Each structure stands twice: as structure tokens, then as C-alpha cells.
Amino acid sequence: MAKPIVQERMLIGGEWIHGKKGIEVYDPGTGELIATVPSATEEDVEFAIQKAKSGAQKSASLPVHERMAILHKAASYIEENQDVYVKTIVLESSKTIREARKEVIRCIETLRLSAEEARRIEGDTIPFSQMPGHENRVGYVYRFPIGIVAAITPFNDPLNLVAHKVGPAIAAGNAVIVKPASLTPLSALRFAEAFLYAGLPKDILSVITGHGSIICEPLVEHDDVRFVSFTGGYETGKEITKKAGVKKTGMELGSNSPTIILKDANVKEAIHSTVSGAFGVAGQNCIGVQRIYVEKSIYQTFLTTFVEETKKLKVGHKNDEKTDIGPMISEKEAKRVEKWIIEAKKQGAIVQCGGRRIGTFVEPTVLTNVPEQATIATQEVFGPVVLIQSINSLEEGIEYSNKSGYGLQAGIFTEKLDTAFQAIHELHFGGVMINDSSDVRIDAMPFGGIKGSGLGREGVKYQIEAMTEQKVVAFKLQRSPFL
């Protein structure tokens, strides 16, 4: 007997609403239909924005202690129902059960960080008397909520990346409209349930499900939406910045992150870190290791051991505790990665291991001798593929690393402090990880890149700053306080 398909609703202004049409949600590992969600229309977007206008006023008027209490209560709800959230992530996404558990824990941490940072939204005093003629003025700057935040989230972290946008928005006193990835909308809907349980006033939070081609444009273009936070691909991000107009945006647009391994490195640790960094979440990770540059004298030893460790990884069912690598998010994406591998082979690349695709599953793949102009070398692969290349020096590794049009994060392994600082200053990236791969992030750090990797910084404190505006206040006194 077939399982009944769950008919999900979207949340608009605190109310659960069915849509006239639906979108089917599948398990990428099995191809099984697991649910349908509403396919929102432009009218739904307009309705959500009108609700958010009221919600922004409610949110701004919430005392800080109430914002904190709501965020803490939502975090506790998720913590108490971890199994539900883990199951949802595993069901709709590429993540294995072990990876899903880590994401749920991080989501809880993100919300608790948001609660704590709400108490630290501070301003500055301004010494007006620094300028002649202003001796009788005193002033200060304070931050106020920006209003309505549009949050467009990706499939690869379907819960925690929603938390990274909603948590700071509520901490800052804003309303927020979430548009989750159409491939993984269920985690965002479960996330919203935690805030309803926590007592978040109606109209402050909406989660609208649907096709980005239909609902993103009216959402980001609307004059009442004052901040657009987007995590996704470069081309989409570029289109959003064009359509958003004169408003603040935050863009995290991915990368093809490098890690440099020098001859004085702890090779065992470097291999462990880069294998994990390259193939976690089936390589669908914006800071995942895509390019590895290894100093010539240790290159062959590194490559041999790296391939051996890669071959030990288990590709399989997401619910199996022993599985290391699950499926890619769709067969379309898996075929794209396969195509790039085949293209690179035709251009002279050598497949050291992997390279095969079965449905949505792609074997963890190690390539060498990849031409610089190959698509897989210049673009973000967002799949379980890593390129390893020999270099003659640190300078050459830095040069190769910086050739990319992206600049999110980089890693370097070395025991020399001077070398580390040279890399810190010369690598053109938003983050440089020493004796770690590029795949390092905690939820409190400023996270973002330069060049094609985006605009602004995520991380709770830094998102709150982006989601608030500064107001200057000046008092003109009858007499100067300095006389």
C-alpha cells in the first residue's frame, strides 16, 4: 500500500495557507515523492509583504527581552524535537543522518547566538565639539530595525541557513519573509513551527514556498522590502542585485575554494582535513575544498594517501550510520558534475579515483593534471570532486589560488608562522584558515567573501548590523557643556 503524500501548507503572517497549485518534493536518494508544498503566486507574495508591514511594526516594538525569550524558546523547541528536524533534513536533502544531526545542533546554536546578540545592539557617542562652531552640540548614533527582510535560502543547509537569516532579523526587530529552495522547503516549514510555538507575534514571519522564477522577482523588487539576504549561485545573485534597486543586500554566492599544502605541513592532518572538506554533503558546500595545491617534494606521498583515504569513503543510503556520502540533490546536478568530469578528461585530466555516476550518486572523485581552462577548474563544481596539483613554492600556490573569480575561503597547512602570515596577507579571500582546509565555519564568525563570492558578511552579529540602520541624533544646547 502506497504511503499517503503529505500536503504541506505555507506560512503567511502567522497563518497556514494552502495554494491553488503544488510543487512535489522528492527524496533525492530514492526518488520517492515525500510531500507537496504550495506553489506561491505573485499575489501570495504581495499578501505576505502586506502582512510583514504590520509585522515589522510589531517586531520593532518588542522589548529586547521578549525577542530574546522568543529566540531561546524556539531554540529549545528544536532541541526537544531534534529527531523530527534530523528526519526532515535527511528526507528532503542530500545529507546523511550524521550530517543532519550536526546541522540541527548548529541551528540551535545560531538561534541562541541571535538571542544573546539582541542585547548587544549598541550605538556610539559623537563628540560634536571636535569641529569649531559645534561646541554646544552633543550627539549619539543608535541602530533601528531596517523593516522587512527577504531571505532566500539554498538546498544544501535547509535548516541552519534559514536560522542565519531569521534569527538575526528577529533579534534586530524586523519582519522576515523566507523563500526556501523549492527542492528542500520542508525544513523551513518545520523551522517556522518552532517560532509559532515560541509565541512570535503574527505577521512577523512568513515562509512562502514556490518557484523562484515566479516569486523572487516581485519579492526582491518590492519597495517595502528593505533588505535582501540571498545564499546561492553567482548568476542568480547578480540578477537579484540588478532587480533589488536601492536597498541593502547580502549575498553569499559560493566559491571553488583552494587549500595549499607545504612541505613542512603535518601531512596526515592535512589529508584528513581536506578529504573531509572535499566530500562532505556530497561536495555541495560553498566552502568545500575544490582545489588542492601541494608542494612538489611531498606531492606524490600526499596524492597516494589522499586517494587511499578517498576510496575508503562509503557512498550509500542517507539513514545508514556508516554512510559518508549521500546523493546529490538531483539527477540533473549529478549529470552536470559527470559532464564536467568527462570534459576535463578529454582535455587531459587524469581520474585518480571515482568519476562514475549512478542516478543521483556520484563517486568521490580525485582529478590531477586538470587544465586551467577546464570548466571544473574555473567554476564551482558543487559536487564530490577535488583537483590536486603540484606546486614549486608558496608563491606559486598563492598565485594559482588567486586566479579564481571567487574569493570565499582558503586554507593552508604550514608549521612556519612567517609563511602563514604571508598567506594571510596575499590570499584574496574573505577567510584564510591556517592548518585547516577551507571548510571551517562557526556560526558566530563573519562569513562571506570577495570578488564573485558575494557581498557583506553572515554570522549572527554581522547580520544584525546589516539588518539595522544607523540614526544620528544631535542635541543643540543653550550653552556649551565645555564652558
TrEMBL record:
Pfam families xrefs: Aldedh (PF00171)
Key words of the record: Oxidoreductase
Domain Aldehyde dehydrogenase, residue spans: 17-473
Top-rank taxon, per record: Bacteria
Listed Gene3D superfamilies: Aldehyde Dehydrogenase, Chain A, domain 1, Aldehyde Dehydrogenase, Chain A, domain 2
Residue runs in coiled coils: none
InterPro entries: Ald_DH/histidinol_DH, Ald_DH_C, Ald_DH_N, Aldehyde_DH_dom, ALDH-related_metabolic_enz
SUPFAM superfamilies: ALDH-like (SSF53720)
One term of GO molecular function: lactaldehyde dehydrogenase (NAD+) activity
PANTHER family linked: ALDEHYDE DEHYDROGENASE
Family the UniProt entry places it in: Belongs to the aldehyde dehydrogenase family.
Name of the protein in its database record: Aldehyde dehydrogenase
